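Is this the right way to post structure tokens for a design question? Let me know if I should format differently. Anyway, here goes:
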């Protein structure tokens, strides 16, 4: 049976944890600490194919945008730094793999950032939102 495994451990672990995290996130459950631990390994230690690394960056970015029920909703986030961090992760995913499919989400983040900037300039939201 052991001879049937044709993959290296980093790839197997990355795929297994990714699949688990995806299922957890869709139901609004926490993906930590497992996803974060493996994500650090994927970006710092393991040499995986670029599409695999890109999907980790994409998932990490989308995780920052998830509501408690698991929906991805940039329009409900008021933290500018969180939105910017998500955009940076999605940008990295796109730079690693041209078919990362992050353009629409990145556009929604940009729209939300502009809206928060407009609200802050009109005094509708606190100044701390503008700088955080």
């Amino acid at each position: 049976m052991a001879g049937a495994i044709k993959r290296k451990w980093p790839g197997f672990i990355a795929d297994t944890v990714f699949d688990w995290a995806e299922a957890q996130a869709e139901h609004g459950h926490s993906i930590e600490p497992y996803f974060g631990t493996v994500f650090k390994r994927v970006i710092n230690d393991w040499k995986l194919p670029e599409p695999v690394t890109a999907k980790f960056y994409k998932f990490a970015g989308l995780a920052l945008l998830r509501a408690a029920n698991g929906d991805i909703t940039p329009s409900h986030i008021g933290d500018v730094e969180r939105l910017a961090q998500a955009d940076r992760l999605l940008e990295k995913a796109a730079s690693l793999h041209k078919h990362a499919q992050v353009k629409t989400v990145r556009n929604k983040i940009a729209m939300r950032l502009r809206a928060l900037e407009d609200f802050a300039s009109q005094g509708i939201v606190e100044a701390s939102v503008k700088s955080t």
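Format looks fine. Someone answered above. Worth noting: The CA atoms of residues 79 and 129 lie 6 Å apart. Helices lie at 9-26, 34-44, 50-63, 80-96, 103-121, 127-131.
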